[in-house]
Design a protein that fits this description.
α7 links the parallel β5 and β6. 40% of the residues lie in helices and 16% in strands. It folds into 2 domains: 87 residues, Rossmann fold (3-Layer(aba) Sandwich); 126 residues, Rossmann fold, CATH 3.40.50.720. The protein is an alpha/beta fold and 289 residues long. The structure holds NADP nicotinamide-adenine-dinucleotide phosphate.
Length: 289
């Protein structure tokens, strides 16, 4: 079997087209959607991620406010900047690029962001709402993966899913989204035993380890016709790779995502979507797009 490529660039464009229309609609009502980003220090990968997010915003008419902060900034100074953005009515979304330097506490920092402007969906308030099936702003990568399933009309009801990741950014929010769709989820991590057996029994495998020295999902580990969503991005042997090799896995899978060009573009598209949802929440409209 040679399966179907789940093309993140194509699906992300459909999301962006929807968001662009919503931006135009909001502008006719006098609302100029605006995303504020905070980058602490000069980590080149983080700087690239923030730049890409700004470019994507520019393309569809979302205003950006860029805050590049000194690597040695204190928690108190960072908290003040976030508080000012929380109180700035022209700013609808706030994104703090992670990871942060050691002196800063990621949980304390993200918790400072107003839940109504939490476009990354990482505040305790919004993660709690997600667990209660009431979330409006949901973490971008998990939300993007759900868009991919929707696009290909992949029914998750009753499916056995192996989810290899338990982070706050990926695994935990995704678990709740999959559960809402009536999937049966086995959440795996570095201490999971018999991972190969679990993968071989799964209808869908979503993998986000990001370290080829620790884990590679090979075709032998999946059943014929399984669906593979590869979230990971890492450098291995001078190449940008996921946890699996797309060209090999697609020979056995019914659907699979490539890396790059799979989940990555979806994450950015959902950030744009969350920004306009936040902008509409700031008004009486309060719609989700
Ligand atoms: N495409 C995108 O837009 C996007 C967005 C977010 C993240 N990512 C990528 O996704 C990957 C994960 O990101 P993250 O922030 O969630 O990282 P993380 O916090 O390091 O999570 C990695 C997960 O892999 C598990 N793991 C480690 N070794 C394993 C093994 N041998 N077998 C099974 N599980 C193992 C870890 O288990 P423990 O919990 O036990 O440590 C952890 O749950 C990275 O490559 C990242 O770049 C991509």
């Amino acid at each position: 079997m040679v399966g179907t490529k789940i093309d993140g660039k194509v699906i992300a464009q459909t999301v962006k087209d929807r968001v662009k229309k919503a931006v135009e609609e909001l502008k006719t009502q006098g609302i100029n959607p605006c995303l504020a980003t905070i980058l602490v220090g000069d980590n080149p990968a983080s700087a690239t991620y923030v730049r890409n997010k700004h470019t994507a915003c520019d393309e569809i008419g979302i205003i950006t406010k860029d805050h590049k902060l000194d690597v040695n900034i204190s928690q108190k100074q960072l908290d003040e900047i976030i508080e000012n953005l929380n109180n700035d009515s022209s700013v609808h979304g706030i994104l703090v690029q992670l990871p942060l330097p050691e002196q800063l506490d990621e949980f304390a920092t993200t918790s400072r962001i107003s839940p109504l402007k939490d476009v990354d969906g990482l505040t305790p308030h919004n993660t709690g709402l997600l667990a209660m099936k009431k979330a409006v702003l949901v973490a971008c990568t998990p939300s993007g993966i759900m868009e991919m399933f929707d696009y290909h009309e992949i029914d998750l009801d009753g499916k056995n899913i192996v989810l290899i990741n338990r982070s706050n950014l990926v695994g935990k929010p995704l678990y709740h989204l999959l559960l809402e769709k009536n999937a049966t989820i086995v959440t795996c991590h570095s201490r999971t035993k018999n991972l190969t057996d679990l993968c071989q029994a799964a209808d869908i495998i979503i993998t986000a380890v990001g370290n080829r020295n620790k884990f590679t999902l090979t075709p032998k580990m999946i059943k014929e016709g399984a669906i593979v969503i590869d979230v990971a991005i890492s450098r291995f042997q001078e190449k940008l790779v996921g946890d699996s090799d797309f060209d090999e896995i697609i020979q056995k899978a019914s659907f699979a995502t490539p890396v790059p060009g799979g989940v990555g573009p979806m994450t950015v598209a959902i950030l744009l979507k969350n920004t306009i949802t936040a902008a509409s929440l700031s008004t009486q409209i309060g719609r989700q797009f």
